[in-house]
């Protein structure tokens, strides 16, 4: 458990000519978090971007549009390129690529446009196909009105009744009609047709039979499609050939632009600049040395203040008068994997403990306690290992890590505390189905190493509800106790011991007092031992609670009293450790009963008396597998999420504030490019 | 016998109603939290904390039910 790295605020001042070199040096050092200059200081104005910026931006713009044409975002580009080579080829390649890609995309778009046009013509012509008229017959009449379109029912009879003279055609499937009526009767015909759901379709232009037209269109479509394939292939080839270059050049140019725009974060006067930044205190000697060496004399660096963790009490003034100090948290490889979960909630403040390591310990522990079954624990470990090997994204890596460590705890609890696999105990207890009865062997309920008896299953999740609930309450009390202790430490370094005592020690007293009362109440009400009113636990507990409440009231005001039931709720909330274990055990028993007792007619009293036949055995195994797979998936969701929730809601609320600003030093991240020697930026 | 049945019904009501209550409370908060997350993904942590707060209701219900059954 550690505080974030201590920071020193530094000010770099130099002549404007040295600004570019200073920025380059800072990027090499990777240890300065720049404070954005606010243009409110007299005599200073924001710096202007360096010269390189505009040219690089223009090229970058072109490259990005090429990337879009090439659809590069959808594929995984692998490979790297030297910066020198990029610089050398950049101008020529962009021009070449632009010509080729634009040509290919244009022809692709043109073909696509023509295909769409033809497709719609084709759809239209198909209507006219089964009517034996040439296309020119549908237009240019002086005395006739032509109706062509779709109908919902055949209007022939109604037309006949309404109009004396007409010509009528209907398609084979009865959904399309063409009718010719004298212009004088047009209105009437329209009325009749509209009763049959007539929707007009404009007759296509052109002469000759629709069938011939369709044939021609089909032919053209075929040639167009092959042209389309060529264009797509050409684009694919271009993509394959230039993907790495385009990506690498993009990265290279982005870096140039980013560096060139750094002056926008720096205050300048006509001849000087002033750069304000945070540097981790432990890196100060290195930074000072490098600056003296590389910029010797041209830039002056001064350490303004080593930021302490202390601050004035009173939340309303917090961080108003000063820049937020960035938080740089450092964790080892294993703990570091859990950093993702801390960040998911919020970055720790500069002045508080980074809680990641507590998550790393208790998060998998709670997960394991809730699962508590060796039959799920071992697959969790394997799945976690596979995940850690194959997955790259942060989300999946943290899930895999949690599964791995959680699986280890689940196996330990499953083996020693609950003694079960897939919801079945190893040894027969209370005349229940167990692995012993199922396999017809006698598994021990404990074994001994050198005189120590090591149990294989102390509790049964479904039968020993009371002790498991009781244990989970105590786990809750212990966890919250740790939370308040961290809170005490945080408050003491931020506001001093006095504030820590009245704001956090008070709650520690209340918690311990409550725990003593719990002991007393369990004896008095649940176990039923007769207890005296002068019992030391009752008196001490009550005194501690009262003293604690008074202290908290002084420290936090009347809100503290409202929080009291909240604390009780927090402790009871930990009973979910027992409850989720129980619900999973219940499901498992249900599936096991269906599979073995019902289908296999397995009788637990007589070991090995399986009298079901082969089909029943297979059916039972199928049900067993599907059922336990379901529980397995549910276990990840419920145990994982509830474990996380216990940390975020119950535990962190006792000490964590978060809302810190991450330490982001000036730094170049290269993925597709490599820096070669002797290359100027 | 009759007493046992009543205890079982009582326990069922305790878990069932508190479960419904949690669900109703979480429904509203959850929908709002997802809405907030759609705007700003960084709100996941806060959203999750707020969403699961009413869950304590059903835990209380469960504790009551268990105490009814085992005491």
Question: Which key features would you list for this structure?
Answer:
heterodimer; A: about 675 residues; alpha+beta; six-stranded antiparallel sheet; four-stranded antiparallel sheet; 18 strands; extended; disordered C terminus; B: about 70 residues; mainly alpha; F1FO ATP Synthase; elongated
Low-confidence stretches of chain A: 316-320, 604-609, 677-681
Largest beta-sheet details of chain A: 6 strands, antiparallel
The radius of gyration over CA of chain B amounts to 17 Å
Give the overall average pLDDT of chain B. Answer: 87
Mean pLDDT of chain A: 84
Give the DSSP E fraction of chain B (strand runs of 2 or more residues): under 5%
**Helical content of chain A (DSSP H or I, runs of 4+):** 55-70%
**What are the secondary-structure elements of chain B, in order, as H or E?**
HHH
State the end-to-end CA separation of chain A. 41 Å
Q: In terms of quaternary structure, what is this?
A: heterodimer
Q: How many angstroms separate the termini of chain B?
A: 16 Å
Apparent shape of chain A: extended
Class based on secondary structure composition and strand pairing of chain A: alpha+beta
- Specify the helix fraction band of chain B: over 70%
Helix count, DSSP H or I runs of 4 or more residues of chain B: 3
Count of distinct strands of chain A = 18
Regions with little confidence, pLDDT below 50 for 5+ residues of chain B: none
């Amino acid at each position: 458990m550690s505080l974030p790295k201590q920071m020193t605020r530094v000010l770099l001042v130099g002549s404007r000519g040295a600004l570019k070199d200073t920025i380059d040096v800072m990027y090499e050092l990777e240890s300065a978090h720049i404070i954005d200059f606010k243009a409110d200081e007299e005599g200073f104005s924001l710096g202007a971007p360096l010269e390189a910026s505009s040219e690089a931006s223009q090229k970058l713009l072109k490259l990005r549009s090429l990337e879009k044409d090439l659809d590069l975002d959808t594929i995984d580009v692998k490979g790297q390129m030297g910066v020198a080579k990029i610089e050398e080829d950049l101008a020529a390649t962009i021009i070449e690529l632009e010509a080729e890609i634009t040509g290919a995309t244009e022809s692709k778009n043109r073909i696509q446009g023509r295909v769409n046009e033809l497709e719609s013509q084709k759809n239209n012509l198909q209507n006219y196909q089964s009517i034996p008229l040439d296309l020119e017959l549908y237009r240019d009449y002086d005395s006739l009105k032509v109706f062509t379109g779709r109908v919902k029912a055949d209007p022939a009879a109604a037309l006949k009744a309404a109009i004396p003279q007409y010509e009528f055609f209907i398609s084979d499937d009865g959904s399309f009609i063409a009718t010719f009526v004298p212009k004088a009767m047009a209105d009437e015909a329209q009325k009749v047709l509209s009763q049959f759901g007539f929707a007009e379709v404009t007759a296509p232009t052109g002469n000759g039979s629709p069938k011939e037209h369709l044939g021609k269109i089909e032919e053209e479509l075929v040639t167009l499609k092959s042209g389309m394939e060529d264009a797509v292939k050409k684009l694919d080839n271009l993509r394959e050939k230039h993907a790495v270059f385009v990506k690498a050049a993009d990265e290279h140019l982005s870096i140039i632009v980013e560096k060139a725009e750094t002056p926008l974060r720096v205050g300048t006067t006509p001849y000087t600049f002033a750069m304000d930044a945070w540097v981790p205190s432990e890196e100060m000697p290195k930074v000072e040395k490098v600056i003296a060496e590389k910029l010797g004399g041209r830039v002056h660096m001064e350490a303004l203040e080593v930021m302490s963790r202390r601050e004035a009490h009173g939340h309303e003034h917090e961080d108003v008068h000063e820049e937020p100090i960035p938080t740089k948290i450092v964790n080892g490889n294993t703990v570091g994997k859990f950093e993702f979960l801390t960040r998911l909630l919020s970055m720790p403040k500069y002045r508080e403990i980074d809680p990641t390591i507590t998550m790393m310990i208790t998060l998998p522990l709670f997960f394991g306690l809730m699962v508590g079954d060796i039959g799920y624990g071992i697959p969790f470990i394997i799945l976690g290992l596979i995940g850690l090997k194959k997955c790259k994204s942060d989300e999946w890596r943290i899930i895999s890590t949690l599964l791995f460590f959680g699986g280890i705890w689940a196996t330990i609890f499953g083996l020693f505390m609950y003694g079960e696999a897939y919801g079945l105990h190893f040894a027969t207890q209370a005349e229940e189905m167990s692995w012993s009865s199922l396999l017809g062997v006698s598994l021990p309920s404990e074994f001994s190493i050198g005189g120590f008896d090591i149990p294989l299953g102390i509790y049964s999740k479904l039968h020993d509800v009371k002790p498991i609930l009781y244990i989970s309450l105590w786990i809750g009390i212990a966890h919250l106790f740790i939370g308040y202790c961290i809170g005490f430490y945080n408050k003491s370094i931020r506001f001093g011991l006095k504030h820590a005592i009245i704001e956090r020690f008070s709650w520690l007293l209340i918690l311990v007092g409550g725990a003593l009362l719990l002991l007393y109440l369990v004896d008095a009400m649940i176990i039923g031992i007769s207890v005296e009113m002068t019992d030391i636990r009752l008196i001490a507990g009550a005194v501690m609670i009262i003293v604690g409440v008074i202290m908290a009231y002084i420290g936090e005001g009347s809100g503290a009293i409202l929080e009291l039931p909240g604390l009780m709720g927090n402790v009871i909330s930990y009973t979910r450790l027992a409850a989720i274990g129980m619900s999973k055990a219940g499901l498992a028993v249900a599936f096991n009963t269906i599979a073995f007792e019902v289908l296999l007619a397995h009788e637990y009293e007589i070991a090995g008396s399986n009298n079901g036949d082969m089909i029943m055995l297979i059916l039972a195994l199928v049900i067993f597998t599907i059922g336990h797979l379901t529980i397995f998936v549910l276990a990840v969701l419920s145990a994982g999420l509830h474990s996380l929730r216990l940390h975020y809601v119950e535990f962190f609320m006792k000490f964590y504030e978060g809302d810190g600003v991450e330490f982001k030093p000036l730094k170049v991240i290269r993925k597709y490019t490599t820096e070669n020697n002797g290359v100027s930026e | 016998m009759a007493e046992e049945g009543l205890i079982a019904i009582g326990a069922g009501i305790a878990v069932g109603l508190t479960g419904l209550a949690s669900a109703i409370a979480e429904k509203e908060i959850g929908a709002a939290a997802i809405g907030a997350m759609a705007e700003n993904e960084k709100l996941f942590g806060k959203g999750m904390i707020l969403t699961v707060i009413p869950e304590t209701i059903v835990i209380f219900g469960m504790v009551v039910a268990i105490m009814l059954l085992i005491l």
